[in-house]
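Thought: the user wants the 3D structure for the chain below. I'll pass the sequence to the structure tool as-is, report back what it returns, then summarize two notable features.
Action: structure_tool
Action Input:
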Amino acid sequence: MYQDCPKLVALLSDYLDGRLPADVKADLEQHLSGCSECTAFVGTFRSTVSLLQSLSDNDLPEELRVRLRAFLDDHSKC
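Observation:
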């Protein structure tokens, strides 16, 4: 079981994409069942991803697009 919430954040993308091994997924879901803060974070993250997927490139200002891409690139290397 997860001792701290940052471990959940590090696995969140793989969790939402269904790429976690079954045992890791079960541990993460057990953590979620007892941590309202992480449950809320996962919900917000899901909503954000859904919103971003619905946007076209023209919906975002160029500067925001560049900053968002840099952020995602930096955090995908965890």
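Final Answer: Structure generated. The chain has one domain: 5-75. The chain has a mean pLDDT of 84.
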